[in-house]
Design a protein that fits this description.
There is one protein chain. By secondary structure, the protein is of the alpha/beta class. It folds into three domains: about 1-150, NAD(P)-binding Rossmann-like Domain (Rossmann fold), CATH 3.40.50; about 150-315, no CATH class; about 325-394, Rna Polymerase Sigma Factor, Chain: A. It contains 16 helices and twelve strands. A seven-stranded parallel beta sheet has the order 4-3-2-1-5-6-7, with helices on both faces. A five-stranded mixed beta sheet has the order 11-10-8-9-12, with helices on one face. Strand 5, helix 5 (about 110-115) and strand 6 form a beta-alpha-beta unit. The structure holds nicotinamide-adenine-dinucleotide and magnesium ion. Nicotinamide-adenine-dinucleotide binds next to helix 1, helix 6 and helix 9. Magnesium ion (MG) binds near residues 151, 152 and 153.
Length: about 400
Amino acid sequence: MKGICILGATGSIGVSTLDVVARHPHLYKAIVLTANKNIELLYEQCLVHHPEYVVVVDEAKAAAFSEQLINSPIADIKVLSGTQSLEFVATLDSVDSVMAAIVGAAGLLPSLAAAKAGKIILLANKEALVMSGDIFMQAVSESGAQLLPIDSEHNAIFQCMPAGYKSGMHAKQARRILLTASGGPFREMPIEQLVNVTPAQAVAHPNWDMGKKISVDSATMMNKGLEMIEACILFAMTPDQIQVVIHPQSIIHSMVDYVDGTVLAQMGNPDMRVPIAYSMAWPDRFESGVEPLNIFDVARMDFSEANLERFPCLRLAYEAIHKGGIMPTVLNAANEIAVDAFLNEHIRFTDIPVIIERCMEKFTVIPARTLAIILETDAQARVISKQIIADINR
Ligand code: NAD
Ligand code: MG
């Protein structure tokens, strides 16, 4: 029996994880559930899973949640609040695995805490890895933690790696990774119309049902940019070894090209419970609740190169990883601020890459040697991005 801590239980990945947990009550127990603000859903999840701890980051919501537990059948659940409590619960002795599914930089410190504590880390929170690459991987190797990627592409690549492969190893027989991308909702929209795209259009992804931030990232293809950086870190590859491939059907979730000419692909219906169940059962497999793939329904699969003029965010991600050091942290922070501004209708869709590029121009590259440097850079890039947004709107 494994105890799991789900950071970001109320999000899209969190909900899918609890669905898989419920299918395997003899193998998994949810020890901790965390949420930022959504205490209504958290309460429902607690009635079903009865964890030992919950963290509600927002203090007022945490107080309201404690109130709600009084005289309920789940009154014994311990309720914590504040960001530091996330690090505390991610390192509890009764926790074997940590699902890192908080969105954005907010997930960095608890994910890193789990890595330092030697937990099995199921990593969905790609932004944490993009920000802290070397430091994160070093924490994993020093503590003997096990890092299993949840991002469907990285999970696919991991599954296509040689037997005994562990995250961070360089598989020398693998010469290239083919990182697939759906191309998002605007793959074929005339480029001059992108300026008028609304948040509602941007979050309506054709193949995947996800949180708002990653849905916008998919529409700009910054998601693929972050994933390219994530793949360089997880699989110890150079950016030139990662080829982005537009595959609109989202049936192949990525491929590994070997020196002998073999290309291994992982396929399946686009449902995050596949990579989640794979990582939870690893090195075994168990049921995820996902329908078997009907290959006759798929019938055809298309592949094409990404157009960097249509998707400047992808070009900026390549620039950031080539520059190295703190630049991926700057890219990520500027993107988070720009996406938030777009979702709140303060900027246009096409302003997103403009803000990121201008923000990156304000920084000179220094090595991302310490966590303090990374956090300081993240904070500065957020301030600068907000100034750029204010200038755009002036
Ligand atoms: P979501 O917006 O649906 O959920 C985010 C979760 O994080 C929620 O539980 C929320 O309460 C919590 N959260 C938000 N801000 C927080 C903060 N400041 N402090 C603490 N908790 C906070 O997001 P999602 O789609 O589930 O994505 C989660 C992560 O997984 C992201 O990093 C995303 O890139 C990655 N991911 C998601 C998918 C997917 O299919 N949804 C696929 C691959 C990777
Ligand atoms: Mg992905």
